[in-house]
Specification:
Layout lengths: L2 H18 L2 H6 L1 E9 L2 E5 L2 H17 L4 E11 L5 E12 L2 E2 L4 E9 L5 E8 L3 H4 L10
Parallel strand pairs: 1-7
Antiparallel strand pairs: 1-2, 3-4, 4-5, 4-6, 6-7
Length: 143
């Protein structure tokens, strides 16, 4: 499987878990500890509970903004020389009935291949200023 396909598959799995509120499934997509957030606010997720708090808040803010859909499209994915990590870039679209609720933005994810053969995220960092896009979830330990 090509790195871009692996990356898109991971994005789809993580997005489906987030949107459905499957917090165990979302935590399973991550290798903890992991970094989550935006360049203006990064959260260290150390436990599945941290991933859940981040996910719950992120989802609530998207829904509060009127979102009915969340789409992430892989644009780049680079496999490391040792074949154990993928660094990817994707576009994020937060939508309501096909209309953007916030301007689309790019994000970057680092994936690592686990001993079990599963790819998991070690870092998810948005290139948007979340405070401007109303998707500022704050620090997981502040909740």
């Amino acid at each position: 499987m090509e790195p871009l396909d692996i990356y898109q598959e991971w994005l789809d799995r993580a997005s489906a878990a987030l949107w459905s509120g499957d917090w165990d499934g979302l935590a399973e997509t991550m290798r903890l500890p992991a970094e989550m957030g935006a360049y203006d606010d990064v959260v260290a997720a150390e436990t599945p509970a941290d991933v859940r708090r981040y996910g719950e808040t992120y989802l609530a803010v998207m829904r509060e903004a009127g979102a009915t859909a969340y789409l992430r499209l892989a644009r780049e994915a680079r496999l490391s020389d040792d074949g154990r990590t993928i660094d990817g870039v994707h576009e994020v679209h937060v939508l309501s009935g096909g209309t953007r609720v916030v301007p689309s933005f790019t994000s970057e994810v680092a994936l690592e291949l686990g001993e079990d053969g599963a790819w998991r995220g070690t870092s998810i960092i948005s290139q948007a200023r979340m405070t401007e896009n109303r998707i500022n979830v704050g620090k997981a330990d502040d909740r």
